[in-house]
Specification:
The complex is a heterodimer of chains A (348) and B (375). Chain A has 348 residues and is mainly α. Chain A is built from 14 helices and 4 strands. In chain A, strand 2 and strand 3 form a beta hairpin. Chain B is globular and about 85 Å long. The chains are: A mainly alpha (348), B mainly alpha (375). Chains A and B meet through helix 7 and helix 14 of A and helix 8 and helix 15 of B.
Chain lengths: 348, 375
């Protein structure tokens, strides 16, 4: 019996079990402290649809052995660029949304290509380099947001200030175009964002299908054994580059979906730490530094976002204080630290 | 293959350029920014002296883990947190002046040792990925620190001084005034040259730490650490407890960082309970790298060269930004960008060279094997 429990702990990982029970207790507590379960479920669904694609974007890089994409911010910046350029062009509705995605993909390919070149040079140390590449690109773009010649009055500061605002509203452009597409109303509170979920499912399917193609299979080989891939005549560096570009492109699309759902484009230092929650969600779903699947994405986003929505409201009702930020920091970063310490054990 | 030859080139000039790319870029940058900022020489020197006394202790704390081959210790943030907890306690007990400062050091030391042990044990489980793990650990511990200070203090840990508590009755305020110990060490031995106040006592403490580090390198433990840093296996074969040595190096670094943060805050005089420690790691590491250090090699001259260059940039960039673009905010972002950029660049350069060297070695072995086979 003891051995069996140990095996289960070994298989799922202690933090995952703790978090699972934590979540269950939150759902049990919610009605007791007088919280409406319906609104909580609604929140979880909306956040799931918002963040799903960003987490999905990590998959290609993990599959080719580039590790967790701590430089996710590059894709996010491409997404922001796409979004603000489409607003500058006064594009509205689905046209605006897809224009934004088109522009974002363009930038993401460029960023991803350069990022891939760099990551191929620093094999084995990708994660720490990527973290700082992400950070420095966010701070570099902060300078750019001040300097770039955007003109749209909805985006620059009023009263003659220069530079873009810290938050830009997507209302009136393409706010909720996906979320309101075929939306279903369940009960009094729950509005199911069918469009966003469908879009997420479509992208997941495309990535899944991509890994069934010849290039995709070659990429998986690179990820599982570089030497073997070399001897098979696979160009390892090229495959890694493709995976990095793919990750960056999906992240850019994910960012636009996020902004579409959230309603705001956040500039300057806001994207600085955005990579960590996404990575934590993937790890929470059962992925490790060297292995991740689509199942991990879906389970991970669901668990992570449930905790983020449930924990603050339940604890607020019990303790009358807002602990959401602290819980977020502990859960997401703790999960990443745990995953990083597990690597050597798996290998030996 | 062109790039590969760049890293293995024997041309000493090119080698020098590659090895010291970061400091060289920085010297050029600073040389442009100083005239742009239009700052007076006196102001500039007094600023530099202040920053020298404030920051060098924290940067020196990074040296020992580098010796043990653990790279840049992003975990010094943990030490900084320990120092801040000490400062919260002495403010609560209303102990001021030199005794207050010493008591803060005393209270913070065991906490720093504990944090250091935790960090060391975790980093031992993530060999080869110490930096990214240390970095994430700092974020994680920041959450624990918040839990402890924002929710635990005044609740579980009694705090009697209501002026440092939030109005809700528990949790420490966002900023605490350290007026009681403000610059007690800096002004212990008063010396003024012209209008510039020189913090003699602080500088003496820093000098003492430098002497300690030089001495430490020569002790048995210091030698062990260098062996561990060279090669884990060789160290293990020669009977050194690798794990323990690595933990010790992190503990020493964390404790030093804790003292460094207390000295830093006694100079500033106020403490942002939840922000003061956040950027400590990034700024200290960036400064050390600017001084020409690498992940595998860092010495005392690197600390001071880096400190002067990096903080010159800090002083001048907001003004240079205003002069250049009419916006001080631009300079702010620029210096954040430079801090992150320097770290990204140095780490990438180091990782790249490490990989090329490894490949060359492999090629050498393969060639050697071939030559034997041919014979």
């Amino acid at each position: 019996m003891k051995k069996k429990i140990q095996n289960i702990i070994e298989y799922f990982g202690l933090p995952r079990i703790i978090i699972f029970f934590f979540l269950v207790s939150l759902f049990v507590l919610a009605p007791i402290v007088g919280l409406s379960l319906e609104t909580s479920i609604q929140d979880v669904i909306v956040r799931f649809s918002m963040n799903g694609i960003l987490v999905l974007s990590l998959i290609p890089m993990v599959k080719t052995g580039c590790g967790l994409n701590f430089g996710l911010q590059l894709g996010i910046i491409a997404g922001i660029l796409g979004a603000i350029i489409s607003i500058e062009m006064e594009m509205i509705g689905f046209t605006g949304f897809f224009t934004a995605i088109g522009i974002a993909i363009f930038f993401a390919v460029i960023f991803g290509f350069l990022y891939g070149l760099l990551l191929n040079k620093v094999k084995g140390d990708e994660m720490v380099v990527a973290t700082y590449v992400g950070f420095s690109s966010v701070s570099f773009m902060s300078i750019m947001w001040l300097v770039l010649p955007f003109k749209s009055p909805n985006m620059i500061w009023a009263y003659g200030g220069s530079g873009l605002r810290t938050t830009i509203n997507t209302k009136g452009y393409w706010f909720h175009v996906l979320a309101d597409f075929l939306k279903i109303k369940i009960g009094n509170y729950i509005i199911f964002p069918t469009g966003t979920i469908l879009f997420f499912a479509l992208l997941t399917f495309l990535v899944w299908a991509f890994f069934r193609t010849k290039i995709g299979t070659a990429m998986i080989v690179v990820g599982s054994n570089t030497d073997y891939a070399n001897s098979c005549g696979i160009n390892v560096d090229k495959m890694r580059s493709i995976s990095v570009i793919l990750s960056t492109v999906i992240a850019a699309i994910g960012m636009i979906v996020y902004q579409e759902s959230f309603g705001f484009i956040q500039l300057y230092m806001a994207p600085l730490y955005m990579a960590f929650p996404a990575i934590a969600a993937l790890l929470l779903g059962g992925a490790s530094v060297g292995k991740a699947s689509f199942k991990n994405v879906i389970i991970g986003v669901f668990l992570f976002q449930s905790i983020l929505t449930m924990a603050p409201s339940v604890i607020n009702n019990i303790m009358r204080s807002d602990m959401s930020e602290t819980i977020r920091i502990i859960v997401s970063n703790g999960m990443i630290v745990y995953a990083l310490t597990r690597i050597t054990r798996v290998r030996t | 293959m062109r790039k590969k030859s760049l890293t293995t080139t024997m041309n000493p000039g090119v080698r020098f350029l590659i090895n010291y790319a970061v400091p060289i870029i920085f010297i050029i940058l600073v040389a442009f920014a100083i005239p742009l900022s239009g700052l007076s020489g006196i102001y500039f020197i007094s600023e530099l002296i202040t920053r020298l006394s404030r920051n060098s202790f924290l940067i020196l704390a990074l040296l020992i883990p580098v010796m043990a081959g653990m790279g840049m210790n992003f975990g010094i943030v943990l030490g900084a947190m320990a120092g801040e907890i000490g400062l919260v306690f002495i403010t609560d007990w209303r102990i001021i002046g030199m005794p207050g400062l010493l008591l803060a050091l005393l209270v913070a030391t065991p906490i720093a040792v504990l944090f250091g042990c935790i960090a060391g044990i975790i980093l031992n489980r993530a060999k080869g990925r110490e930096m990214v793990t240390g970095f994430m650990l700092a974020f994680f511990m920041n959450g624990i620190y918040q839990l402890f200070v924002l929710y635990g203090m005044g609740n579980i840990i009694p705090i009697s001084n209501s002026s440092i508590l939030l109005s809700r009755g528990y949790g420490i305020r966002n900023s605490i005034s350290l007026l009681g110990i403000r610059q007690v060490l800096d002004k212990l031995i008063p010396l003024k040259i012209g209008n510039i106040l020189i913090p003699v006592a602080t500088l003496l403490v820093i000098a003492a730490l430098c002497v300690f580090i030089i001495w430490f390198r020569k002790t048995k433990l210091g030698q062990d650490m260098r062996t561990v840093g060279q090669d884990n296996e060789v160290a293990r074969v020669s009977g050194i407890n690798v794990e323990k040595t690595r933990i010790l190096s992190i503990v020493i670094s964390t404790v030093l960082a804790c003292y460094g943060q207390i000295l830093f805050l006694q100079n500033i005089g106020t403490m942002n309970t939840y922000q003061s420690h956040e950027k400590v790691g990034v700024f200290a590491i960036a400064a050390l790298l600017v001084g020409g250090a690498s992940v595998a090699k860092a010495n005392i001259p690197n600390v001071f060269i880096g400190l002067i260059l990096f903080h010159t940039m800090f002083v001048v960039s907001p003004r240079a930004g205003r002069a250049l673009m009419g916006q001080a905010q631009l300079g702010e972002y620029f210096r954040v960008f430079v801090s992150y950029g320097v770290i990204a660049f140095s780490l990438a350069l180091y990782a790249w060279r490490k990989r090329v060297e490894k490949e060359n070695e492999r090629k050498k072995i393969m060639n050697y094997r071939k030559s034997i086979l041919v014979k």
